[in-house]
Amino acid sequence: MTVIYIICKILTCPGAYLRGFLEHIVAKICGCYIESDGYIRMDEVSGHTDHSFPLKKGGAVAIAFIPGILHFVFGVVLSFAGILPLALLKVDFSHHILFPVYIIVTYIGVSMLCNLFPLVDDALFCKERLYGKEGGANIFVRIIMFIPTVICIAGAYIERYCINILIIGALLVLMFT
């Protein structure tokens, strides 16, 4: 399964690299020790930063959610900026000079959307810090963070098994048919 995962990360290289970079910045802000500097590697941490776990609850939540939120916002904006002219306006190579730009912007946006979620270890550690027996968060934070945490964990498993690329690919095919 690791080979398929690495191939998916190479196919979505701009999004995977940016995800690793954003995780690196957030991990440094949270005081985590960064174990390696490579973002695109040939192992199961490809597209992510290999770091130690943060000591505080806020750090665990930040590492699990902040890079994904930024990826989602920029990925949606870039995807729509490229897909709208291509799908709705039916811009093609023979009629418009900006066709290659729309294709590149769409590719970058889609690759960002394919790399939204953290590693499974980071998502499960965030859940443990929020809901664990050793000093979990207060009840208000638990209620507010329940649905985002479930989405984060489910998305981490979906990304681990490369199902996200199949889903986004199917959505793109539906848009252009």
Overview of the structural elements:
This protein has 177 residues and is mainly α. It has a domain at 54-176. Helices cover 69% and strands 0% of the residues. It has helices at 2-11, 13-29, 57-88, 99-113, 120-131, 139-160, 163-176. The longest helix is centred in the middle third of the chain and has 32 residues, at 57-88. The mean pLDDT is 89.
Termini separation? 31 Å
The portion of residues forming beta strands comes to under 5%
- The SSE order reads HHHHHHH
**What overall form do the CA principal axes indicate?**
elongated
The total strand number stands at 0
Number of helices: 7
The radius of gyration computed from the alpha-carbon positions, rounded to a whole number of angstroms, is: 18 Å
Measured as a percent range, the helix fraction is 55-70%
User: Low-confidence runs (pLDDT<50, min 5 residues)?
Assistant: none
Mean pLDDT across residues: 89
| Secondary-structure class | mainly alpha
* Main sheet summary: none
List keywords for this structure.
177 residues, mainly alpha, 7 helices
TL;DR?
It is built from seven helices and no strands.
Per-chain topology:
Blueprint: H1 2-11, H2 13-29, H3 57-88, H4 99-113, H5 120-131, H6 139-160, H7 163-176
Helix pairs in contact: 2-3, 2-4, 3-4, 3-5, 5-6
